[in-house]
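Journal club side-thread
Mid-discussion, someone asked how the predicted structure for our own chain would compare to the paper's figures. Pasting it here so we can look after the session.
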Amino acid sequence: MNGPRHLYQPGEIDTIRSGDIFVFDISGALLSGFLALIAIPSLMVLLSLTLPALVNRATNLVVAGVFIPVCVFNAAGASSPTRTRNRWSCCAATCS
C-alpha cells in the first residue's frame, strides 16, 4: 500500500470492497491487528501517566522493543508513489 494515495488508483476501492487489502483477506484478525497498531501508542501514554516510574520504564522498553521493529517493517513494505507512478500523476486529476 502507498498510504492514502493508493486509493486514487483505478480499481483500488473495488478491490477493498471485494474483501482484500493488499494480499490479505479482510477478517476480524486483520482488523484487530490494525486496531492494536493504532491503540498501542495511546495505551502507552495512559500507562506512562498511571504506572510507577520503575514499572513505566520497563514497560516502555519492552513495548518499544516490539513496536519499533513492527513500525520499521510497515515502513519498509510501503512504496513511495514516485516509484510506481509518474511523479505528477497525483495532480493530474485536479489539474485537468
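Post-session note: Helices lie at 12-17, 28-50, 53-77, 81-84, 89-95.
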